[in-house]
Amino acid sequence: MTALATPPEHPLAQSSILLTVPSLFFASAERFPDSPCLGTKVEKHFRYLSYREFAQSVLWLRASLRARGIGKGDRLALMSPNRPEWPLWDLAALSLGAVVVPIYPTLTPKQVHFILSDCGASFLAIADRFLLDPLPLSALPSLREVFLFDADEKPALSIPTAFSKDLLEEGKKISEGSEGSEELSEKDLATIVYTSGTTGDPKGVMLSHENLASNARALVEYEKLTSLDSCLSFLPLSHAFERMAHFMFFTSGGAIAYAENVNSIVANLFEVKPTIVISVPRVFEKVRSRMLENMLSASWLKKNIFFWALRNGRKARQERINGKGLSLGLSCKLFFADLLVFKKARRAFGGRMRFFVSGGAPLLPEVGEFFEVLGFEILEGYGLTETSPVAAANQVGRARLGTVGTVLPGVEVRLAEDGEIAIKGPNVMMGYYNRPDLTEEVLRDGWFSTGDIGTFDEKGFLKIVDRKKEILVMSNGKNIAPQPIENALKKSKYISMAMVVGDGKNYLTALLVPNLDPLLRYARKNGMISKDSSELLKDERIRVLFREEVDRFTEDFARFEKIKDFALLAEEFTQEKNELTPTLKFKRQNIILAYSGLIEPMYGK
Length: 605
Known about the structure:
Elements lengths: L20 H11 L4 E7 L2 E6 H17 L7 E5 L5 H11 L3 E5 L5 H11 L3 E4 L2 H4 L12 E4 L12 E3 H9 L16 E7 L7 E6 H14 L7 E4 L6 H13 L2 E4 L6 H8 L3 E4 L1 H16 L3 H22 L6 H21 L6 E4 L6 H10 L3 E6 L6 E4 L12 E2 L4 E4 L4 E5 L6 E2 L3 H7 E2 L2 E10 L5 E6 L4 E2 L5 E2 L1 H8 L5 E7 L6 E7 L1 H10 L7 H4 L3 H14 L9 E6 L19 H7 L1 H7 L3
Parallel strand pairs: 1-11, 3-4, 3-5, 5-6, 6-7, 10-11, 10-12, 12-13, 13-14, 26-27
Antiparallel strand pairs: 1-2, 8-9, 9-19, 14-15, 15-16, 17-18, 18-21, 20-21, 21-22, 23-24, 25-26
Helix pairs in contact: 1-3, 1-8, 2-3, 2-6, 7-8, 10-13, 11-12, 11-13
């Protein structure tokens, strides 16, 4: 693989700090000053800041923040939807040696308060008043100042506040040369990323500059990214996956355009014409479903041509997998299938796509096959927040569907006797913030125990078999710990047992075992005396009761942690039915299999 060229001299891109995130960005700004960097839609067209323009804004903001006393080790929390200010503040703070703490804008005020309090945030950069107003900032003694991206009327807070645009103007007036640059080290803490825990409060994953920068450089080389590449960004930047995608493009000198919103992704793909799209499986599932639904409702001729093309595309794909050449007849059919259907589909995605990247959850084989038949390549990868996040990935031209690829250069992976994956390398976290006990459980001699079970095939491709830990990884990439939700549900006097379901799905459901005594009392009080327990659970009035209870006791959870649907069970989970361990923990896979007839209808199957 070709190594990255040594960048020209730059006050923030010196060889002594080469493995820091800012040094990689400023090196690209030196090498590709006029190349497009960040794009947003203005009126009807996407407009881009060049690397020179964006780097200048980073330096201005950096100067202003430095003048306000923000420096090495200070915690700056960043809470906003995707927009250019996100990487602007990220890079400016990181270049000062500050520690950036991303926060999902969809979290509840209670969850945000925990993160701000736990990390000891001194500064909060936030999108707007809509996100700011519900936060209990008075209960955060460590918070010194709040910065707002959107400039409207300042909130009436006891804590000083300022607008992002004003700080940029201040920075323009401050002269700062190389003599003012911070002495960053690759071993310095760069960020604390809070990820779901299994027993309640989230854990703060500590990642150094080396963790992030080494992962970005390895991925650029591994996937052969260049300054000519571009992507459409729509995953939340608070997620380690999307943030690393930004660091990759800042390293290669490529361009990033922000989608207008989730509903405009397909239209924006045609406008931006990206070469790479990084997403989670749920988005690919939605695109495939929409295309199939559109074809099913199309004219008879168009519908039949489309599905004829798909059938022959699948045949040709299978022949290639089997190592066989295509017959003359199949080659001719494939030519016309491509001419009539597949080329049009590729043009709808902009016509320049080199590959898709899928991560955060397993990709359904039928979804991957669908895109391959259309002429796209989807590269699945694997990693965790604790590994910065990528540890393995497929490569262009040698991807194997159903695997997460081969291990990145510089990273080691080994399997324990039970198949648990352990990872070692420059991308492995420093530890969990304020939780040495949890760090010791998973980090030994530099090896991080993932809790995932895997196997290697004969060609060294890693396949994820199962999850040793109970974290639910949804198809939209969200990681959710089920136990806190289950414990909250059991606070209801009507719920005896609750098991949350949603691994690989795009929303959560639950299996609920009612507490019969109070439920029967409720039934008698509301004129349902004649009903026995099994018949009672089918009564719509009982469904309404449980819907109210579920909503009430999960009120403090984030939107993506809400229970969309539930099934009421007439019997408790037991050890005798192999549903509980001796310590009464759920055997989740056994329960899911036993109640698949109730679970599948909740997901529209």
